């Protein structure tokens, strides 16, 4: 596992955006580059930088297929808190060459949610698998909507959200946890770790315990993010604020080994 520590959130986002753009630009296979994407506050700066790079001609999305991590169950596309809305508002609508038919987001209004999840897994496989999956984690280490104690081999499916997650997300729903959907559709931990490369963003003091568990803790269903330890091409991009719970030796090691990557 690589841990790339940047001084602040802005530098973390700039580094992650450049890494993604470099991977897209280096893609030479006779098929589109397949990119997994998250929602939430952590990736917004990455999306803004990728949009800038796209408009400047530094990276093209014309040959990129995207798959998003998750979607609330029961929210229509036009709801301003749906992840379909979030992705178009923060990213897709600002790219100059993103093809709408290449955007894949789970349908939270599907009549048969389980069938929708199975269809999603099948489409990922039909596209050749995901080349790079960018993600973020919650304060309890959950990756996508895979809450603590979700199987580390799980596939895309319906997930019940914990009270803690609904409380955290209630800031987007008028600070009313009951207004937050109780369930979501989400890729599984196994879906993410099947990707050829995984890039996870971790920023802020409130994510310090989760970062330490991801990097230094035991591989455990309690911290679903810890599954990244088993991936051959996992990268954590984080800011200094998130490093508060790392041991000094680990912190110094990653600064030393990744010294040329620091902005």
Salient structural properties:
single chain, 263 residues, alpha/beta, Rossmann fold, three-stranded antiparallel sheet, 8 helices, 31% helix, globular
Strands, helices and their partners?
Elements: E1 2-6, H1 9-26, E2 33-37, H2 44-55, E3 64-68, E4 70-72, H3 83-90, E5 103-104, H4 113-126, E6 132-136, E7 157-160, H5 163-169, E8 183-186, H6 189-193, E9 197-202, H7 208-215, E10 234-239, H8 248-257
Helix pairs in contact: 1-2
Briefly characterize the structure.
By secondary structure, this protein is an alpha/beta fold. The chain is 31% helix and 17% strand.
Provide a descriptive summary of the structure in words:
With 263 residues, this protein is an alpha/beta fold. The protein has a single domain (2-258), classed as Rossmann fold (3-Layer(aba) Sandwich), CATH 3.40.50. The protein is built from 8 helices and 10 strands. It has helices at residues 9-26, 44-55, 83-90, 113-126, 163-169, 189-193, 208-215, 248-257, and strands spanning 2-6, 33-37, 64-68, 70-72, 103-104, 132-136, 157-160, 183-186, 197-202, 234-239. The strands form 2 sheets. It has a 7-stranded parallel β-sheet with strand order 1-10-9-6-2-3-5, sandwiched between helices. A 3-stranded antiparallel β-sheet has the order 4-8-7. Strand 9 (197-202), helix 7 (208-215) and strand 10 form a beta-alpha-beta unit. Helix 1 crosses helix 2. It starts with a strand and ends in a 6-residue tail after the last helix. The model has no long low-confidence stretch (mean pLDDT 96).
């Amino acid at each position: 596992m690589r841990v790339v520590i940047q001084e602040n959130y802005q530098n973390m986002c700039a580094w992650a955006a450049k890494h993604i753009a470099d991977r897209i630009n280096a893609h030479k296979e006779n098929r589109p580059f397949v990119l997994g994407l998250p929602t939430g506050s952590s990736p917004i700066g990455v999306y803004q930088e990728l949009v800038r790079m796209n408009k400047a001609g530094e990276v093209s999305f014309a040959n990129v297929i995207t798959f998003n991590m998750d979607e609330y169950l029961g929210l229509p596309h036009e709801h301003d808190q749906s992840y379909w809305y979030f992705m178009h508002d923060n990213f897709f609508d600002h790219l100059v060459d993103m093809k709408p038919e290449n955007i894949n987001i789970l349908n939270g209004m599907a009549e048969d949610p389980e069938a929708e999840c199975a269809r999603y897994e099948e489409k990922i496989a039909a596209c050749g698998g995901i080349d790079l999956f960018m993600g973020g984690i919650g304060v309890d280490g959950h990756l996508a909507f895979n809450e603590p104690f979700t199987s580390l081999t799980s596939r895309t499916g319906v997930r019940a959200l914990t009270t803690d997650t609904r409380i955290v997300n209630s800031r987007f729903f008028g600070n009313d946890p009951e207004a937050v959907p109780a369930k979501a559709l989400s890729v599984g931990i196994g879906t993410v770790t099947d990707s050829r490369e995984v890039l996870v963003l971790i920023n802020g003091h409130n994510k310090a315990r989760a970062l330490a568990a991801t990097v230094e803790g035991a591989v455990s269903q309690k911290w679903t993010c810890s599954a990244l330890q088993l991936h051959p091409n996992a990268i954590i991009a984080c800011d200094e604020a998130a490093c508060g719970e790392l041991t000094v030796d680990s912190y110094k090691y990653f600064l030393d080994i990744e010294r040329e990557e620091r902005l």
